[in-house]
Fold this sequence. Notes:
This protein is of the alpha+beta class. It has three domains: 1-61 and 368-396, no CATH class; 117-128 and 144-156 and 397-651, YVTN repeat-like/Quinoprotein amine dehydrogenase (Methylamine Dehydrogenase, Chain H), CATH 2.130.10; 158-365, no CATH class. 33% of the residues lie in helices and 19% in strands. It has helices at residues 3-31, 35-50, 117-120, 143-156, 160-192, 199-211, 244-249, 252-268, 270-283, 288-312, 317-331, 351-359, 369-382, 444-448; strands spanning 219-223, 230-232, 239-243, 342-343, 400-401, 457-462, 468-473, 478-482, 487-490, 496-501, 507-512, 516-521, 526-533, 538-543, 549-554, 559-563, 580-585, 591-596, 606-611, 617-622, 627-632, 637-642, 647-651. The strands form six sheets. The chain has a five-stranded antiparallel β-sheet. α1 (3-31) runs antiparallel to α2 and α8 (252-268) packs across α11 (317-331). The protein is elongated and about 100 Å long. 41% of the residues are buried. Mean pLDDT is 74; it is low at 57-140 and 388-453.
Amino acid sequence: MNPLNSLLSMAIVNALTVIPLAGLVLLLARLVRNSALRHTLWVLVLLKFVTPPLFSLPLTIALPTTNDTRDVERPAERAAVPASSDHVSARVLPQPTAPSTPVVAVSPAASPSVDAATVLAEPMAGNAGVPPESSSPPTPPTWWRRLMSAGMAFCAEPSWWRTGLLWSWVLGTLVWTLWQLWHAARFARLVAQSPLVPSRLQEETNQLAANLGLAVAPRVSVIDAPVSPMLWGCGRRARLLFPADLANRLDAEARATLLAHELAHFQRGDHGVRLLEFVATAVFWWHPVLWWCRTQIEQSEEECCDAWVVQQFPQAPRRYAEALLDTIDYLCETRRALPPIASGLGQAPFLRRRLTRIMQGTTTPPLSRCMRCGVGIAALAVLPLQPFVFGGPTLGQRRIDLPRDWPPASVSPADESPDLDRTGPAGSPDARQEPAPAQVRRSPTKASSRPQRRGSVWSTAVSPDGRFVIRITTSRRVTLTDLAERTETDLSDQNITAVAFAPDQPWFVAAGSDGRITLWNSLNGTPERLVARHPRGLRSVAVSPAGDAVAAGSLDGQVLVCDLGTGEVRTPLPTLPAAVNCVRFSPHGRSLAVASGDWVSGSRSQVVVHNLSDGEAIATLKCETAPGAVAFASNEELIVGLYDGRAQLWNLATRQV
Length: 657
């Protein structure tokens, strides 16, 4: 995958994740009086901005959901279609619901079995009549799932506005970073030109550090500038800066309280938090939650440091408050802004609350061992995980009990055509067409016992043994049905655009609008591993008859032929001038048919058959309109379904229909 797209996806995921996380921390902060705990929680939110999603759980924190069990109205039984080995019917293909935004469909693998035909006999969009109604409407997606889907769709499909926003984001990051670095460089020169620190001030600092239990005291510098006393720098090289004019105005006791305040920042490691804020702000300078989080962190830090000073000087809280007021009065004359990665005395808007707490002698106890363990567990649970585990049944499954009178579908050997090519594909669901009547006989009793759901079935894929069925409807609902266990798994949130069942194996391969090619377990409906990834969305996928390779077609005209075990590209194929609508392996697995074309304009429409040994084109079939589906009738014959509703049988040797 393009590294830029990967970084952008991670940034958008984190930007969306911190919104509910910050809301939760805000609620906890209102219930918790401990400033140290509030500070830790807000730092956790800040960390989430820059923590990459390292892994995801195939489980979900369950939210209340309603089962999608509906009263089923049985359709009338269909009559069986007589088989004819010398006739291929041209069935009218359903038209897409919106030409500008096609509903992508599910595609099967090249399967050695035809048991899928009984399921493919279901009504499809365009020929099913009025969609059946159900007694209960489907559960609408939550706002969080809509927000996450919108964010990931932003990364999936490039467009001019997406490119403009991306470059605005990058430009803002560069401008903010350069401005901060320039400001820091100017301040560093000012510090370098400062006079040597008086020995008595350094001695006072060392003595205070020893009394406070610090192993190392920071170096003190006196600066000729109207700035707040601050801790500036990173790590052990941080320096304590004190303005010369303010040092001369204050007496020893008041000066000691301000020095103790900065030493408290040093002991707590707040200068490290400043570095984290710098990195997070450079990337998410536009995010309002970030600036709000920084404000909350600063307020909690100052309260913790004030409580620490009051604890060390229990007899002088009033003197410490007066020292803060003298500092504010000094800064009001000609104030200079704090440089990057600096911890000062805080902002004036918080001063009234701080002075009240100081005069009352309020202290903040440090985090207990239980609190630290709890925060650590929360950090491990929140920071590295993908956000969709918090939104309900997204990656997890929504198991739905099916009616008891829905038995597994099967086709008896007596119903199969003797002239059927058993090595050919079972069908072409992702092209929205059914197998020709010459290939398959349907069982009217099995078809009539199957329920219809809200919305028309747009496409269907069936496992070779007929146990598992994947459907996609015109409402973009994707479901995996286990006919043996009578359960259904909702996969609508997985961005699946095409699937292909493996021959004689309990798994299937799914292609997604995010460019992922993923291996899924059919038994439990969970992803096993990522096979490959492409920068653009994928529209079709197919598994080789041997089950060792996978092919996928992309919206940018590229075709991936990858090893299913390693994910490495087997045969590089040339890029086509239009989007790839369908890919299919030949029955012997040595050829790949690729249908390409724009289904809106119909231009650049063609079907190319490639030799997988060298990637060369064996045949190129020019089409009048965009081809939406291809299926090998044999190694030398190819069925092509066009978006104008026609189906053509091509002879690959003669290039004739």
